[in-house]
């Protein structure tokens, strides 16, 4: 990385610019908020995309699992999709696989008593994106988008989603989040898709998929965004075995048949094997990164949740700190 940008010069007095940059690059992400208060130059540097990719290129980033987790009344039986079903309050939990450290992210200011139910997560450029879901009080679908900056430990409200969607697929690549399918506020299944640009804070509509896909699951494999299974308005719960695949290069969809077990719900159960092919988890959530995986689930309905980490073929059960054993609704991996 060439240090021609003024942000990368004279970072630390009496040190050559490359050594100053090296010192700041080695700072753990937990220290970034304090370091950004030293001066405007450090603040601009730490918040820049260039600095994130510089740290990533030299191996100073790490992958953290981010989970939408029940923080009160946390049983799977209370995960009802109807008003009055006793849904628990949900918060955001993080698990650092390297240090085996559990933590909880501060609540979104607009939702201090719990996240929107069934909101979706995405991890882009060291930031956590939270979007959509149902208002935890009224159960109305919402279009809100929030971004949590791990470096600053701050939430920001961003441009709302262009339409009310629930149970849609989500995937992310570089500084963009892709969403597709789900259903609208009238329970009609959707075949539409959108892409959100974090840098520009803009939404752009994608071409339509080959069919409606409610309760589908999204996953990014290489240069493609896969929208797996789902069902149409007239076939409630009839999960099919096909997928629509969006190519980042061509900007077009292609349909793939026979990639999923018909009749099986794909929500939070789609994994990617070492050969970059789809696989089905028998447990609830998979969050992958760097050849390792973090998963959680229960042996049977009503059983307590277990948490596991390891390689695809060998998982190790890990201990759960007090207060972090609640039901996990969904999750993603963020490299910070």
TrEMBL record:
SUPFAM superfamilies: F-box domain (SSF81383), Kelch motif (SSF117281). SMART domains: FBOX, Kelch. It comes from the Eukaryota. Pfam families: F-box, Kelch_1. Residues 15-55 form the F-box domain. GO terms for biological process: negative regulation of cytokinin-activated signaling pathway; regulation of phenylpropanoid metabolic process. InterPro entries: F-box-like_dom_sf (IPR036047), F-box_dom (IPR001810), Kelch-typ_b-propeller (IPR015915), Kelch_1 (IPR006652), KMD1-4 (IPR044595). This is F-box domain-containing protein. The lineage of its organism: Eukaryota, Viridiplantae, Streptophyta, Embryophyta, Tracheophyta.
